[in-house]
Amino acid sequence: MASREQFSSRTGFVMAAAGSAIGLGNIWGFPTQTASNGGAAFVLVYLLMAFCLAYPALMAELIIGRHARANIVTALRYIAPNKATRWLGTFVGGCGVVVASLILSFYTIVAGWMLAYLGQSITGLLSWQSASDWLVTFSFPRNLATGGLFMILTIAIVGKGVSGGIEKWSTRLMPMLLAIMVLLIVYVMTQPGAMAGLRLYLLPDLSHLEPSLIVDALGQAFFSLSLGVGTMLVYGSYLSEKENLPSLGATVTLVDSGVAFIAGLLILPAIYVAQAHGADIFDAQGNLYAGPNLIFQVLPALFDSMGTIGLGVALAFFTLMSIAALTSSISMLEVPVSLAAEETDLGRPKATLLIGGLVFVVSVLIMLNFDTLFDFVITLTTVYSQPILGLMLCIFVGWIWHRDNLLKEIKAGHPEIEGTWFWRIWPFYVKAFCPVLILAIVIPSFT
Ligand code: TRP
Does any ligand 1 atom lie closer than 6 A to the CB of residue 220? Predict the structure, then answer.
């Protein structure tokens, strides 16, 4: 096999993995789930899920990936000791590739909306009225154009490879994302109404503690850490032997949860600032707007009411959203592309173009049947498939992979890991506890 690409440094990996993890799930999903699930009560359950279930599952992916140095299908086959488990590896890996592609197909549509509103903040500045109206009015041609543009950007980066594309762009874009977010928070906090949003965010309302909240928090944690479909597995496969995996995984989990938390400091106060500016922030049932209405109605109403400065704030906000989406979408596309590039003679650029094109065809099908397919694909992939595939990866690590090889991989390059808590607890935990806990949480939601 040709020599395999690697991330050029520890920071490069952290930027890429954090770039994958930090996405619309953090900046939009987490704050609004928090708002509709009782504020701080949800934050607490979320953190519990992130560190007790998502972190162990993330470690399973990183360890398999670095050991096998391959895409998810080849990697699972590689650690499987016999024919039956190799077959299972092909099946689970194949499902991961399909689910990653499906997630990318709906993510592309939503990211396209972010580009549309970003474009509108520019056409608005230039007073191009009809272009602005076209950009912010839901239509098939608009979705096709902006989703297509987003897919082209994703393909352009992934086609350039691991260090020259994914790592390079993540390292450029992630610091920008943080800077924009901090600027926006500082600005929003000085506006009237911000404190009401902050209160809702930070004071727990325990009356909302229901079983469904735990399922939501688990799904959110798995989505946010990009788990189950082989994203983190393939990023782990580009890591050098010298890296300390448990600490890298912990860094990524911390950064991801930290940014989700910080995003809440922006979104929830912004909702209440919008209310102070006269926007309607509750739907007919009296619930806070959380879905597309929030991002594409409540917040734009706020930006509009702020006059010219509002155009600048809108520009910053939708740039933030677009960056977050792009560094995530490249990690989704890498899952099928790594398989095609490693198992066929296509070569990376061609494989990227072909697969990106295919995924976009699926996006177009969803756009054309929006009312029936959009929510369906999201629920199918993120609520059910991701936790179940994550569980299968825990089973591969705990039950199928030869234990000695697993332990050797954990401490590769860092023999001192043998003295840590991680070493003592994780192998047993991921084998016995994670599968049972994930099942216990996910099964009731099927009924
Ligand atoms: N974690 C990203 C977010 O929060 C989305 C994401 C990237 C993802 N890669 C993934 C989700 C793989 C599921 C699977 O928006």
Answer: no
